[in-house]
Structure formats: C-alpha cells, structure tokens
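This section describes the prediction task in plain terms. A model, or a person checking by hand, is given the sequence of a single protein chain and must write out its three-dimensional structure as a string of tokens. No templates, partner chains or ligands are provided. The sample shown here is typical of the held-out split.
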Amino acid sequence: MSPTRPLFKRLIHEQRHYLFYSYQAGQGAGHADEHVHVCDTWAAIPSSWREIVAPSPWRDPKYYRLRRGAARLLCYSGNGQTLEAYGWVQDWRPFRRKFGKLAADGTMLGPYRTVPQARGQGLYGRLLMHSLSICSKEKPVLIYTAPENVASQRGIEKLGFRFLGEWVLDRWLVGFVRLRQQLSKKDARVAVCETVDSSVEDRGTQDYHHGI
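The expected answer:
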C-alpha cells in the first residue's frame, strides 16, 4: 500500500467518536468561583494568557466566536496572575451542523484544559460549576469528551451530567456529515445500573445526514 494512501483517505473521510452528556435540573444552578475570570472579549484576556489559550488565534474558531459574542472564556487563576486552567462556554449554533441530532439550540461547554503543574486539584470541576452558573438552563446544556479520556468522564459524571451515549461523526470532503449513535461499553454499564428509556433503546439505529 502506498504510504500516501492512508493520508488521502483521511482527507476524503474523517471519523471521530464522542461521549456526550447533558445538564439536568437535579445538578443545581452551579456555583460562581471567585478565582474564575470570565472574558467576553479578546481584549479582556491578559496577553500572557492569550499565548496559552489560543497561540494561533487566526486558526482557532473559538477566537472568532469570542469576537462575535458566541463564546466566553473562563480562566482560573488562584493568584490572579498565573493561568492554571481555562474553558469555554459556547453558543450551540456553530455545532448545529455536526451535532444537530442532539439539540437544535442550547449551550456547548468546553473544551477545558488544566496546565500540567495544576492538575489533580479539582480545577476542572470548579470551572464546570462556574460555567453552569453563567449559562441559561432554559435550553439544553451539553458537553462531550473522548472515549479514551477517562479522567474527563469522571469529572463530568461527578457533577451529575446525564450520559447521552457514544456518538460517531463521519465527515466527507464532498461536504456531508453523518452523526450516528453507537452502543459503547459505557452504554452497557449504564443499562445495567438504570432503567433505559425508549430513546436510548434505539441507540445505534438512527443516522443524521447534513450538508456542511
């Protein structure tokens, strides 16, 4: 096989797996953290922090969403000078083409990052709680992580987010997207622990097609 063939296939077709979760009322309204700074504009982000959150802003969609008012950046700093963790609260509209099967409108939480030297201090959970305190609960609030990111899954589940299943996104160069739900190992564990409603029982049978 030519060494360029796998690369060519990735250019034509890309597949990614996501574990999605949603906010539920029993979680409460969140909690504002005094060490979390919410930046509504690019200018509000300290210059030394910009290099961490978006080292190449012209290549980062979140930068443009921030400028349009469709995203907010949350920065955690215990001393007010050193950035230890950060995350995004974004409008759902930019994600509608890819994940329209999950919601027509709402809020997307993430991505979140903690700098290596600050990990293990619960900063991810604190950012999530602050995120919930500033976003509307009248529409769906969703968050996703990768199947292999067990630490992120634990942090999300610890705060009570409801698991929506594993979703597979196929994208083709010709401009089409297909989102489908797939039975995962986590789905099987959830099925053992709780009653599964009819919408979850149909998992893996429905596809979503949308032109980009």
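For orientation: The beta strands are 13-22, 36-39, 71-76, 85-91, 107-114, 141-145, 162-172, 176-182, 207-211.
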